[in-house]
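Now for today's protein:

——
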Amino acid sequence: MALVGKMETEVEIKSPADKFYNTFSSKAHTVPNMSPGNLHGVEVHEGDWESHGSVKSWTFSAGSLVKWIWEYEKLQEDGPTPSKYVDFVTDLTKNIDAHLLKEEQN
């Protein structure tokens, strides 16, 4: 059984793609406010909030579809696959999308 894997998911959004991208590229510290039920805090462990290559790593596609890809390594061979993150990022994406749409209407 492999200890290293890769997972991905896509979530359709209605808010402007550039605003969604900018939320993560330069305003990641605001994400917990947009989805408090899913995310309780964000910290920079290496780098900073805006530099590519910082510990936070997000993958986006252009348009109204967000594509998340993350790689993982299990600590033990018989450990579970971290599939719970698919549901987590799907809910997170929908909450941020709703928040940005609400901002657009105000």
In short: The chain has one domain: 4-38+57-105.
